[in-house]
Inverse folding.
């Protein structure tokens, strides 16, 4: 089960960065006022948990398993905050249903 979760994290990070590279948005993701949050999200949600949970012996340690799971959860929450609260720029009067270009 642990190997499956580890592969899922690696695939998530790969798809996330690959999708942005294919759309030509990779350089823009790391710049601007929200670039630091994106880097933090990638670290919390993928890279650090992959390192923490990379081997079976480290997954057997409950503290590393806890921190890997907690960082993954916090990374997902940060992703939602980035997308819903910070990155979406709405225009017009309330209820603001049309995103700005």
């Amino acid at each position: 089960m642990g190997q499956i979760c580890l592969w899922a994290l690696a695939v998530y990070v790969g798809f996330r960065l690959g999708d942005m590279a294919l759309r030509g948005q990779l350089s823009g993701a790391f710049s601007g006022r929200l670039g630091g949050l994106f880097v933090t999200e990638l670290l919390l949600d993928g890279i650090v948990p992959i390192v923490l949970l990379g081997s079976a012996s480290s997954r057997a340690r409950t503290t590393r398993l806890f921190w890997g799971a907690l960082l993954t959860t916090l990374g997902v929450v940060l992703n939602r905050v980035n997308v819903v609260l910070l990155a979406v720029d709405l225009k017009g009067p309330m209820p603001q249903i049309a995103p700005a270009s």
Observations:
- The chain is about 75% helix and 5% strand.
